Amino acid sequence: MSGFCQNEAPVKWQVSVKMDGSDKGTVIFKAMVQPGWHLYGMNLPEGGPKATVIDMSGSTGVEFTTSLKPDRTPVKVHDSMFDLDLTWWDSDIAFRRNFKVKKPGDARIAGKISYMSCNDKTCSPPKNQAFDKIIK
Fold first, then answer.
1. What is the mean pLDDT of residues 65-72?
2. Residue 25: how many CB atoms within 10 A of its CB?
3. Class of domain 11-134
4. Cβ partners under 8 Å of residue 89, min gap 6
C-alpha cells in the first residue's frame, strides 16, 4: 500500500553548526523538501504565499560575518494558484551563514524559521520552527 501520509511534513528542517577552528564557524539550515512539493523563496511579492525567513535574532555571543546564502538560486515560476511570479526550491536546499564567536561561554545561535510550502494542488499552512544551537 502506498500513498501520501497526511502527517508527513512536506518540508523538514535540520540545523547544524560546523566550526572552522575555535572561534569561526558556519550555521547550516537544511530543508528537505518532499518530492512534488516546493519551498517558497526568501523574497516574494505582496499578496502571495509566505516567504522563507530564517530569523537568528535570538543568537548570543556570536557575530555574523556574512549574510544568509542559499546553496543555489531558486527557480522563478509563474504560480497560477496565486497568479504571481514567484521563486521556490523544488528539492532539498541548504542555507549557510558564517559567524565569529565573541563570548565562548555564551555562544548560541537561536531563532526561528518561518516558511510555507505548496504542491500543484494544495499548500501547507505557514509554519514556524524554533532552533537553538549551543556553540561549543
1. 98
2. 22
3. mainly beta
4. 31, 33, 38, 39, 41, 70, 72, 74, 75
